[in-house]
Design goal:
globular, Nucleotide-diphossugar_trans
């Protein structure tokens, strides 16, 4: 059973420089879908021109795709994701689509989804799945000439630890999301807490490893405990360590 409505939720904190590319990628990914789509950008503690950039992009939307900017000056990024999700469900309410046919997709304002992001997830969206998890690629790691020690250490960490989930690349069915109470107020790791709650309530979580979102490789974090903070720690820890040594570590 294919989805009849989609909501894409994007929190942003002072992302005027990157959010335009993020939205261009999301709009490309949702174009051509013959179902209602709500794109919600949560301007979280923003003091730059993020909202202006977003509203300009949203002014060009047409058809079944609708955009909303939500200004939020409280809480954590988990609060922003939760607020944006409820706003997305509000936008879609007019279509009367049941929650078990509505999917909530999550990404970040410093990320770029692939053009077939929705298509790759839609192939797995049915009653046998309640959540789908994709992977992320850290920008700046495309080749040996641009890959620094922190990025090498990050990929080593990803290769040698367990399954990974990212709020920058996640889809959850609305009925399952509401059943577990939505995004837990836990930062960092709100995506892991959400998925754990789903599993605890026997909602199936399915990895989709061929669906990859590109995310920023910056080490100046917007959210405490996020990828930027991790890269900053890795850069400090592995400064001067030869890449070959990083690759050979068990």
């Amino acid at each position: 059973m294919k989805p009849e409505a989609l909501a894409v939720i994007i929190p942003a904190m002072n992302e005027a420089d990157l959010v335009g590319d993020c939205l261009d990628a999301v709009i490309t990914a949702v174009s051509g879908n013959r179902v209602p789509v709500a794109i919600v950008l949560v301007a979280h503690h923003c003091s730059d021109d993020t909202e202006t950039v977003v509203r300009k992009r949203f002014s060009k939307l047409s058809g079944l795709v609708e955009g909303m900017v939500v200004r939020l000056d409280r809480g954590s990024v988990a609060t922003a994701r939760s607020t944006g999700t409820m706003a997305g469900l509000y936008l879609l309410a007019a279509y009367g689509v049941p929650f078990d046919r509505t999917w909530l997709l999550s990404t970040d304002a410093d990320s770029r989804v692939p053009a077939d992001w929705i298509d790759r997830y839609r192939r797995r969206m049915d009653r046998r799945t309640a959540a789908l998890t994709g992977l992320v690629h850290v920008s700046g790691c495309e080749n040996e000439n641009t890959q620094d020690d922190a990025h090498e250490a990050y990929h080593h960490l990803m290769r040698t630890t367990g399954p990974h989930a990212y709020a920058a690349n996640l889809a959850v069915r609305a009925d399952a999301y509401l059943d577990v109470g939505g995004w837990p107020d836990q930062v960092p790791g709100e995506e892991h807490a959400l998925l754990e709650a789903l599993r605890h309530n026997h909602w199936p979580v399915v990895p989709v490893p061929d669906n990859v979102v590109t995310t920023s490789g910056r080490d100046t974090p917007r959210a405490p405990g996020g990828l930027g903070e991790l890269l900053g720690r890795l850069r400090a820890t592995h400064a001067g360590v030869p890449r070959q040594a990083l690759r050979s570590r068990p």
